[in-house]
Amino acid sequence: MFKISLPIRYLIKRPISYLAVGAVALCVFIVVVVMTVMNGLVQEFSDLNHGYVGDCVVVSDSLVGFAHYEKFMSELQKQPFIAAVTPVIKTFGLVGSDATRSSLGLEVVGIVPQMHQLVTNFENTLYYNKGDAKDVFVPPYDANLPGCVTGVDLMYRRMADGSYNYVPFASKLPITISCFALTPRGAVVQMGRSAAINTRTFYFCDTSNSGLARVDTDSIYLPLDAVQQMTAMSGENPRVSALLLKFSAGIKLDDGVQKTQAMWNNFVESEGQSELAFLFDSVRVQSWKSYRREVIAPMEKEQVMMAIAFIMVGFITVFIIFVIFYMIINQKSRDIGVLKSIGTSAGSLFAMFLGFACLIGLAGSAIGSLGAWALLENANRLERLLFDKFGWQVWDRSIYAIGEIPSDINPAVLSLIVCSAVLACFLGATVPVLRGVRRNCADVLRVNQL
Amino acid sequence: MTKERPFLRCDNLCKSYRLGAAELHVLRSLNFSVANNEFVAILGASGSGKSTLLHIIGALDKPDSGRVIFDGEELLKFSGAKANEFRNKKVGFVFQFYHLLNELNVLENIMLPAMASSSILGWAACRGRVKKRAFELCERLGLADRLRHRPYELSGGERQRVAIGRALMNRPILLLADEPTGNLDSETGNGILDIFDELHRSGQTIVMVTHDERVAQKATRTVRLADGKIISEKSI
User: Hey, of A8, A13, A341, which one would you mutate to test binding to chain B, going by the most B CBs within 10 A of its CB?
Assistant: First the structure.
């Protein structure tokens, strides 16, 4: 019976136990806070990327894109695993503004808004047309003018608190966009002796805040047909750079990608004799994860590095518990001797002290988790307060495209951390406890009589 | 030298300790026996081997050679579990420095041997009976008003009475006391000796180690040790 009550008394009555609980609590606190923030940031970043491209892309590596996309789209749209498909052109362009008298090299993205919003999260990234992108290219001041949407960082300044200095439409803002026209073979279309550069003026309609810094500073969205004309991708066999796909609910990503790949292979085979079939060679079918690998991978790598750092924290916890238990067992060697003298087995004592270690692990984990929860719950409030009072931020929002500090503790991660902490206590205590209970009872009592 | 058939007999006990390069022989072929209902005092100077002998009798330590026969069974052939049961049921220890657990109160310290031998379910079944026995012991030892006190809140004499209560909890056949008055003033020590006397009169077999001649006078037989050997025995 004392195997339960005595560890509880040791925990409550012994100041040295508080040290052990404090050490575990501190480690759990740090790990929970950093893992929550780090995992939250990676998850948020992944979600933004997912929202930006949809589930799957059929994309050409070449600037000239690929043809017959409409036929493939109609085949895809018949499939039950496909919820929506949208064509996209991505090309380079020079963007100039009368207001700034500057010229920037940007990524020009041609989209069909009403289709694009069915696959991506585009409609929710808009400011003036938030929630419905159908009329996003219709300037509010003149519906007959061609409209464009800019990345938010091209148009507005990001404030220190992460917000933008949006202003109501004052007057029409023309933006001049120039694109190179390329033949299907990749040569620049010539007009006489000069390269054909198509320049058109569009009028600012809205901004897109995707939350992806590079996209929001480098992209300008135009109607797909306009970009096709400017890049010479229209005509008898119109071309696009990519098809973005959204899978039906319940379709696993890998399964959907595999099915799309199989369809694409069949399509290429059936269209193999067409004039522009050679363009299919540069087309890949990819999941959103592998398509955005380049930008997600560094963050995931940081996450792995962070996990490795926390495994080291785990080792430190084991060592701290080892040292503290070494001291506790030395302090309690007399109790061990007494309990042995009344017939308690070494196994029972071992179990009792390991129970004590687990109790320390659980108490420390509970305190650490509660502390972490309290901090994370108030992290954004606290950061705002520090910013208001001292101008200090964890991340400078004028530089980093981070909104709120992630504060949702993942129950699975928390359980893993708590189990690891208890295991660390268990491991840290094992050697000192084993050493303590194996000591000769008479020697222990004799030493304690000195 | 016992008149009755001994229920505890030690034959040719040898025990030595290593102190650096030197070997210290604490017991040298020692023969010793105790009969039922005896009160034996083992006398000797410091280092004469009396505490070591007590530890061997109580299965807390093992000799290098020799035999210990307790109630017809050879102690040194006991398995670990049987030795634990022996310490729990057959003998009770009283130490010079009481060795009480500070985290437990008086009642819990006394009940400790009964707790040690019970599983959680077993404890639930026998808790009432054990508590009754502990209350009786507290009453008998004059601790009835100190039940909820912690050891550090008690005087030396009270602590030793708690230790005696703990030793008697499981009604042991043999009570082993290692200098039970060695840490007490003479008046308090006399009170403890009176308890031993009373226990002996009620039929308890006691083996007590002491270096104090006056304390040994309470016993029915004294055994004097020197250099690990019995040099004299005297029945009082």
Answer: A341
Closest CA to B165 of B130, B189, B124, B209: B130
Detail the DSSP E strand segments found in B71-171: 73-74, 91-94
CA B236 remoteness from chain centre:
21
Chain B residues touching A335 at Cβ < 8 A? 101
Nearest Cα residue in chain B from A345: B84
Nearest chain B CA: its distance from A384 CA (Å) = 48
Average pLDDT of chain A? 89
CA dihedral A363, A366, A368, A371 (to 10 degrees): -130
Which residues of A fall within a CB distance of 8 Å from B168? none
Measure Cα distances from B4 to B8, B13, B36, B147 in Å. 11, 22, 7, 39
Q: Average of pLDDT values for A395-410?
A: 79
Question: d(Cα A170, Cα B88) in Å, to the nearest integer?
Answer: 93
Q: Where are the beta strands (DSSP E) in chain B?
A: 6-19, 22-35, 39-44, 65-70, 73-74, 91-94, 174-178, 205-210, 221-226, 229-235
B98 touches chain A (CB under 8 A): no
d(CA A295, CA A50): 12
Cα dihedral A168, A169, A170, A171, rounded to 10, equals 170
User: What is the distance in angstroms between the CA of the first residue and the CA of the last residue of chain A?
Assistant: 31
A450 CB contacts (<8 Å, ≥6 apart)? none
**Rounded Cα–Cα distance for residues A341 and B86 (Å):** 10
Q: How far is CA A51 from the centre of its chain?
A: 11
Report d(CA A2, CA B118) in Å as an integer. Answer: 9
Q: Work out the minimum CA distance from B65 to partner chain A, whole angstroms.
A: 17
Contacts with A338 from chain B: Cβ below 8 Å: 99-101
A342:B95 CB<8 A? no
Inter-chain touch B99–A338, beta carbons under 8 Å = yes
CB neighbourhood size of A191 (10 A)? 11
Q: Do B61 and A441 touch (CB under 8 A)?
A: yes
Kindly state the tokens that stand for A177: 């966009």
Q: Contact B161/B125 with Cβ under 8 angstroms? A: no
At A376, list the tokens. 């994370």
A interface with B, Cβ–Cβ < 8 A, is 1-2, 4-6, 9-10, 13-14, 334-335, 337-346, 348, 440-442, 445-446, 448-449
Percent of chain B whose pLDDT exceeds 70: 98
- CA dist., res. A367 & res. A373, Å (int): 10
**Does any CB of chain A come closer than 8 Å to the CB of residue B69?**
no
ipTM of the complex: 0.90
Cα–Cα distance for residue pair B209/B187, rounded to 1 Å: 19
Mean pLDDT of A309-333: 85
φ, ψ of residue B27 to 5 degrees: the values are -120, 135
Per-residue pLDDT tens for A62-93? 999 999 999 999 999 999 999 999 999 999 99
Q: How far is CA B15 from CA A175, B67, B225, in A?
A: 102, 12, 14
Interface contact A340-B87, CB threshold 8 A: yes
